[in-house]
Amino acid sequence: MRLARNSSSSSSLVTPVLIRHSRYATQSRLGGSKNGQPTRKSITVASDDGTVKWGQLSRAEKAARATQQSVNFLVILAGAAMTCGVLTFLYLDVFAPDSKTNQFNRAVNRVKDSEECLALLGDSGQIRAYGETSWNKWTRNRPIATTIEKDREGNEHMRMNFHVSGPLNDGVVLVHLVKLAGQSDFEYHLLALDVKVHLPTLKLQPYGIGRPGTGLPVEGYDTPVFL
């Protein structure tokens, strides 16, 4: 009977110790501290993900979070400013009624609708309009040459020139638009097509040059057409 009591008492003494040890080991494996609270990594500007509440942060961690939020706010402002700038540029240069792109398209349409221009260039469906050509065939043509300036009276002048190419000839279109002070639309001051027409070679006998029958070719001349 004594042995039984001793064994039972010894088992009762050992069991709580084992239970306490297993609990402590479990908390240690979970990353707990001596106080029984889970530990965490210190918050920095790069590692802060916002999961830790503001009241649980130290002074240094609060400064890191404030710095991170300030940087994020500045990045958002910079992105918004760039987006507004791009949208403004697209509207003024492409979508606005008096933009360069719209004025260029209107001038090209007027050239294609002119019978005089079609007689020199050819079929309107085969006419191409483009900017200054490049010597390198692998590079794209330059943008349309356009200048906008105001005179002393406040009138706005837009000057533009571009190339046109048709099945018969090539040419250059000259455009001069004027927006008078107080008006909202441009008006045509000049719209001209300058085409170089190639004439057939003429046989000439210039005086004192070469032998009789020697011919000199006439390369061509510029034929302006005002619309």
- Secondary-structure element order, as H and E? HHHHEEEEEE
Write the CATH fold name of the domain at 100-195: Nuclear Transport Factor 2, Chain: A
Low-pLDDT sequence parts = 1-15, 17-32, 201-223
Largest sheet: 6 strands, antiparallel
Radius of gyration: 42 Å
Number of E strands: 6
Structural class: alpha+beta
| Cα-to-Cα separation, first versus last residue | 129 Å
CATH superfamily assignment of the domain at 100-195? Answer: Mitochondrial import inner membrane translocase subunit Tim21
Give helix % range: 25-40%
Per CATH, the class of the domain at 100-195 reads Alpha Beta
* Beta content: 15-25%
Specify the overall morphology.
elongated
Q: Helical region count?
A: 4
Kindly state the mean pLDDT as a whole number? 75
Provide the CATH architecture of the domain at 100-195: Roll
Organism: Trichophyton rubrum
InterPro entries: Tim21, Tim21_IMS_sf
Transmembrane segments: 71-92
GO biological process, one term: protein import into mitochondrial matrix
